[in-house]
Amino acid sequence: MSNQLSGAPGNLSPIRIERAEKRDKSLLPWPPRPVYHSGGTDAPRRPAAGAVTWNITTACNYRCSYCTQQFLEDRKRLLKNAPAFIAAFSRLPGRWEIKMSGGEPFTHPALCEIAEGLRRQNHLVSVVTNFSASRERLKAFLDASGSSLRVFSASFHPEYAGRNNQEFTAFVEKCRWMAGHLDAEVSFNVTCVATRDNLAQLTDYAETFARAGVTFKVQPEKRDREVIEYTDEEQELLLSLGGHNMTGVLAPDFSGQPCWAGALYFTLDDRGHAWRCYPARRFRRQYLGNFLSPDFRLARGPTPCLYSYCNCTVPIERGMTPGTCAREPEHTSN
Ligand code: SF4
Ligand code: SF4
Predict the structure, then answer these.
(1) Closest ligand to 319 CA?
(2) pLDDT (tens digit, 9 = 90+) per residue, 99-144?
(3) CA-to-CA distance for 230 and 210, rounded, in angstroms?
(4) How many other β-carbons are positioned within 10 Å of the β-carbon of residue 316?
(5) What's the pTM value of the predicted model, to 2 decimals?
(6) Are 79 and 85 in contact (CB under 8 A)?
(7) First to last CA, the chain
(8) CB-ligand 1 contact for 104 (6 Å cutoff)
(9) With a 6 A CB cut-off, is 64 part of the ligand 1 pocket?
(10) Which 8-state DSSP code applies to residue 305?
(11) Residue 130: which of 86, 82, 162 has the closest Cα?
């Protein structure tokens, strides 16, 4: 079975990320026919809610050395016409979790307006931020999201927020402040990219955030879109800290197996382009159309994964990929 989880204990050879090739040409026309059993695996049970990861801007106030977006041609793009996007979200069937990121989403002047619009439509709101926004602006976002807020993910970038003890202490204190303003059912976590410069500090970071009562997740560093070649010892360290975003692995491979991405999950950019998932966007396959256009199409069910490396922890954590089950807290109130 190809659902081997690279970097799992006992299989600590250097990670190789095979570039995706066309595995089944019949699956490429969109929308594909549903396939509930493939690659020796049944599709997971249909998740209760859909999820979107939405890059609302390419702009960011940081320039991290390891940023996967550093080679984008335009790092100043802000989503335009927020009301048209809000209207498009109203056309999705059922309730969806909209996870906004960037760039840095808090650089977008309409972030709160968007969050409020999604809340009014009974969708769930999540955000990934470098957490540099002022407490006043963060609070305005919490007010706009209200009880629809599901996940607040603060990425910790030592190059900007941890250059000395004072900065790190201030970041941890801000996390405590944020945790104190969140409803109990909101999932709050801090993430950190495991660069070679950071590796020696990761365990200390994890212990400090644990003492502060905040979940700490590590993310493998990527270069040229692929996970860097960690040594066996480095892989062991990352696995001991939970693997990529606490999934227990570093580079999952679900190729050939049925996944709900495309039907109940997609990635969306600031111009409305929608793809099945991040690997699909990377390889320019499985395009759902422009979200603002009538041509936008969701898949009708699960279909086999075409990619040999899944870096989409949102569908993994929400039970959309084979052998996984939803782990983020369910948020039912609104
Ligand atoms: S905060 Fe995130 S988006 Fe901004 S430069 Fe750093 S890694 Fe890139
Ligand atoms: S989300 Fe992951 S498992 Fe699903 S199609 Fe994309 S790469 Fe494959």
Answers:
(1) 2
(2) 999 999 999 999 999 999 999 999 999 999 999 999 999 999 999 9
(3) 25
(4) 26
(5) 0.91
(6) yes
(7) 41
(8) yes
(9) yes
(10) B
(11) 162
Q: Which atom belonging to ligand 2 lies closest to the Cα atom of 265?
A: 1
- Write down the domain spans for the chain: 3-317
pLDDT higher than threshold 80 for residue 68: yes
> DSSP for 258-288?
EE-BTTTEEEE-TT-EEESSHHHHHTT-SEE
The gap from C-alpha 18 to its chain's centroid, in whole angstroms, comes to 21
Q: What is the pLDDT of residue 11?
A: 44
Residues ≥6 apart with Cβ < 8 Å to 122: 95, 148, 334
State in Å: Cα 251 to ligand 2 middle. 12
Span 20-35, pLDDT tens digits: 455 566 667 899 999 9
Q: Is the backbone peptide bond immediately before 262 cis, with ω within 30 degrees of 0?
A: no
Q: Which of 56, 58, 63, 64 to mutate to test ligand 1, by most ligand atoms within 8 A of the CB atom?
A: 64
Ligand 1 within 6 A of CB of 60 = yes
What's the average model confidence in pLDDT over 1-27? Answer: 47
Pocket of ligand 2 (CB under 6 A): 254, 259, 261, 276-277, 279, 305, 307, 310, 312, 315, 321
**Residue 43 parent element (H or E):** none
Fold of the domain built from segment(s) 3-317: pyruvate-formate lyase- activating enzyme (3.80.30)
Better-predicted residue by pLDDT, 28 or 272 = 272
- 3-class SS letters over 81-132: CHHHHHHHHCCCCCCEEEEEECCCHHHCCCHHHHHHHHHHCCCEEEEEECCC
Nearest-atom index, ligand 1, CA of 63: 5
Cα–Cα distance, 252 to 307 (Å, whole number): 10
